[in-house]
Amino acid sequence: MSLLAAPLKLYDTSVQRLSGALLASLLLVFVRVVLGGIFWRSGQTKVADGTWFQITESTRELFRSEYAGVPLPPDIAAVMANAAEHILPALLLAGLFTRLSALGLLGMTLVIQIFVYPEEWWAQHALWAALALVLVLQGGGLLSLDALLARRRA
After folding, report:
1. I need a labelling partner for 102 at 20 to 30 A (CA). Which of 7, 62, 124, 145 fits?
2. CA geometry: angle at 100 spanning 148 and 79, to 5°?
């Protein structure tokens, strides 16, 4: 028996235990909360206190100036971004339409990367994209409304 046999067996056993569906689903909940939280907090900076959709004048000015590279009229871009930054994170938190919501946030990340802050890829946007891609590929996991609805349809 090799000197590495016992440590390798312990490693293999540990990997097998950590590869279960429940732990993977808990990880997906965490990813949903983290990605959703990033965009939710950003959305909250753009609206009047205590509201979800009442865009402030400073937000409108932000879309006219700093975000002017986005190829949409500023008023439309502000409304669309605000809706996405509130609706998509709420859907992620619930695990409802997880893949579609994550795809929307991935698209938003790419718009921000390409048209607004192209220098931020390695600082932030790559992480956001990675989190979104995990959810696009894996879905919400067992602890999501997606899974509950799938079980009811089956």
Report:
1. 62
2. 125
Cβ count within 10 A of residue 26: 14
Both tokens assigned to 113: 């990367």
CA separation, residue 102 to residues 6, 33, 113, 133, 147 (Å): 41, 11, 16, 7, 16
Q: What's the 3-state SS for the chain? A: CCCCHHHHHHHHHHHHHHCCHHHHHHHHHHHHHHHHHHHHHHHHCCECCCCCCCECHHHHHHHHCCCCCCCCCHHHHHHHHHHHHHHHHHHHHHCCCHHHHHHHHHHHHHHHHHHHCHHHHHHHHHHHHHHHHHHHHHCCCCCCHHHHHHHHHC
Q: How far is CA 97 from CA 7, 62, 79, 94, 102, in A?
A: 42, 30, 21, 9, 9
CA separation for the pair 138, 58 (Å, rounded): 37
Quote the pTM value. Answer: 0.88
Is it the case that residue 18 has pLDDT exceeding 80? no
pLDDT for residue 1 is more than 70: no
